[in-house]
């Protein structure tokens, strides 16, 4: 009776004139939950009869609900995918085939859906023909989609592998293969080769070639195909750093030049060192042939990867470190070291206490990237960490080189360093200077930091004078006012008069966009010993006038919760 009552209520909702998607989703979810419940109960009591009358009728109803929903809201891909997932879960192959067909007719502009359908045909229905047909249809809509070609290429190789396995089983069973026609061309992956050649004409770029090559390497019968892709890669993309990167890393996968029977730990280390040397030889050739930032980045990334690999051999670790530092130096000397890699180089130098070299590198980096805030920040952090005497001089130099916009990180670093190193007078003068030097939006952060530092070092009276002074120049942040309110609350003789002043100043700036500020003001009037509860009405009236749009409703609901004691 409960099931009937719930199902009837859900059915009425989807029979309305104005249909809602949520009603269909709730009905479908209820029916799916009911199916799961029946499944569990059958397993518990061991009752396996009347499936046609029970499960199949519910399944049919769910499919019809999905069909109605996807017919009404055709653009909702998630709804289609939910139907696909349901069909897979309940093994409704015939129904799923129809769903894919309808979905692809509507959403033919989404390659991922074509791939999903073809994959299902290939892996679940074991139909290579249907999968191939879907891929060919997809390529008519997306003739230059790399992912489609990659998956089509993979599918043809999977088909070839499946046929090879079938043939091998039949031959082992000594069965007559007269009727079965296993074409040698298909068995050797010729279909995949045709797909690759077609794709290469339409899709340019080394990334696609490498993706196809990585797929081909998963199959043990594609040596000729791999060779062809590799030759194409070397001839068409010889100047691309990724080609050289692949060729160099390939040396790691190749076996030792002189195979040995004994494999002791020492020999393994020697062999790994030999492989890495071969990789570096290719990279050295590469940076000579293609002297670009991208090529050096590939080389350095490889060296850092090898250095970060765990090894018990101290000798190998030392070799990797020396090689990495050497490559960094060579790239730097060529003026082709990317900005982002200077940070890793400096970190490596500092980790091994090469402080003089780190200072030298940081200085060279700021000369090369004199307008980069990150580079100056990096150099200053190195000098601060090493406790050098020329930190102030470097800060002055940085501020002179970098434009005023974007210098906030430098000023923050400077005042933080000054707080722990210089006198209070010098730090205060620096804060005052930072407010003048930074752009108005950036000065907001400096005001907050200045207020906090003054309270910690100068006390309440001084911070109050500073607050009044800073309030003369906009802009402000909400945290700036909240910080002052918090400071006032921390005093033994916390005066409501001062709190009102701070709240009023904050509301002038943020009263039209922040509901919590109004509510905090009302709470303060109610909870403070010197507060006046009768002021709450006027604060509420002002809030209703100042707040904009949906914020009024938000304020009303929160104020109601406050009155009932739930906030």
From TrEMBL:
Coarsely, its chief localization is nucleus
Q: Which UniProt keywords apply?
A: Nucleus, Repeat, rRNA processing
Q: Which InterPro entries match?
A: HAT, TPR-like_helical_dom_sf, Utp6, UTP6_C, UTP6_N
Entry's Gene Ontology cellular component terms = Pwp2p-containing subcomplex of 90S preribosome; small-subunit processome
Where it sits in the cell: the answer is: Nucleus, Nucleolus
- Domain U3 small nucleolar RNA-associated protein 6 homolog C-terminal, by residue range, is 277-547
Report the residue ranges that make up the U3 small nucleolar RNA-associated protein 6 N-terminal domain in this protein.
1-61
The biological processes this protein is annotated with in GO are:
maturation of SSU-rRNA from tricistronic rRNA transcript (SSU-rRNA, 5.8S rRNA, LSU-rRNA)
What are the protein's GO molecular function terms? snoRNA binding
Entry similarity comment: Belongs to the UTP6 family.
Q: Which PANTHER family does this UniProt record tie to the protein?
A: HEPATOCELLULAR CARCINOMA-ASSOCIATED ANTIGEN 66, U3 SMALL NUCLEOLAR RNA-ASSOCIATED PROTEIN 6 HOMOLOG
- What is the recorded name of this protein? UTP6 protein
Organism listed in the record? Climacteris rufus (rufous treecreeper)
Identify the coding gene. Utp6
């Amino acid at each position: 009776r409960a099931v009937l009552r719930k199902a009837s209520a859900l059915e009425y909702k989807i029979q309305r004139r104005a249909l809602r998607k949520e009603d269909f989703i709730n009905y479908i979810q209820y029916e799916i939950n009911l199916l799961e419940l029946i499944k569990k109960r059958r397993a518990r009591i061991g009752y396996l009869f009347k499936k046609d009358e029970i499960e199949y009728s519910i399944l049919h109803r769910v499919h019809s609900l999905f069909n109605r929903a996807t017919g009404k809201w055709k653009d909702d891909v998630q709804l289609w995918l939910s139907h696909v997932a349901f069909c897979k879960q309940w093994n409704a192959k015939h129904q799923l085939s129809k769903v894919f067909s309808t979905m692809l007719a509507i959403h033919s502009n989404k390659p991922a859906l074509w791939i999903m359908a073809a994959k299902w045909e290939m892996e679940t229905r074991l139909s290579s023909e249907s999968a191939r047909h879907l891929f060919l249809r997809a390529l008519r809509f997306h003739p230059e989609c790399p992912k489609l070609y990659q998956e089509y290429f993979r599918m043809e190789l999977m088909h070839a592998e499946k046929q090879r396995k079938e043939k091998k089983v039949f031959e082992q069973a000594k069965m007559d293969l007269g009727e079965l026609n296993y074409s040698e061309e298909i068995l050797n992956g010729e279909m995949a080769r045709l797909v690759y050649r077609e794709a290469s004409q339409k899709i340019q770029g080394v990334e696609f070639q490498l993706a196809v090559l990585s797929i081909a390497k998963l199959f043990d019968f594609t040596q000729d195909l791999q060779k062809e892709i590799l030759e194409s890669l070397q001839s068409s993309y010889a100047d691309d750093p990724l080609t050289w990167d692949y060729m160099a890393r390939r040396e790691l996968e190749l076996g030792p030049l002189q195979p040995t029977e004994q494999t002791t730990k020492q020999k393994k280390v020697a062999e790994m060192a030999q492989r890495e040397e071969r990789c570096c030889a290719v990279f050295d050739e590469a940076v000579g042939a293609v002297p670009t930032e991208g090529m050096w980045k590939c080389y350095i990334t490889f060296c850092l990867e090898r250095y970060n690999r765990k090894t018990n051999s101290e000798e190998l670790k030392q070799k990797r470190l020396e090689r990495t530092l050497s490559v960094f130096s060579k790239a730097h000397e060529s003026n082709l070291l990317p900005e982002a890699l200077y940070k890793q180089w400096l970190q490596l130098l500092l980790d091994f206490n090469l402080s003089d070299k780190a200072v030298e590198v940081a200085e060279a980096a700021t000369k090369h990237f004199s307008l980069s805030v990150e580079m100056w920040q990096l150099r200053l952090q190195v000098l601060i960490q090493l406790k050098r005497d020329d930190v102030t001089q470097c800060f002055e130099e940085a501020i002179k080189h970098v434009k005023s916009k974007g210098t906030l990180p430098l000023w923050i670093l400077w005042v933080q360093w000054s707080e722990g190193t210089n006198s209070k007078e010098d730090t205060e003068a620096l804060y005052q200077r930072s407010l003048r030097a930074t752009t108005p939006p950036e000065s907001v952060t400096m005001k907050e930091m200045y207020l906090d530092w003054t309270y910690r070092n100068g006390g309440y009276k001084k911070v109050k004078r500073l607050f009044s002074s800073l309030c003369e120049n906009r802009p402000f942040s909400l945290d700036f006012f909240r910080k002052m309110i918090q400071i006032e609350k921390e005093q033994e003789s916390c005066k409501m008069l001062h709190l009102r002043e701070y709240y009023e100043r904050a509301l002038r700036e943020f009263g039209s966009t922040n509901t919590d500020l109004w509510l905090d003001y009302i709470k303060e009037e109610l909870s403070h010993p010197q507060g006046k509860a009768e002021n709450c009405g006027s604060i509420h009236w002002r809030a209703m006038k100042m707040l904009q749009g949906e914020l009024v409703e938000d304020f009303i609901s929160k104020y109601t919760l406050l009155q009932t004691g739930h906030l």
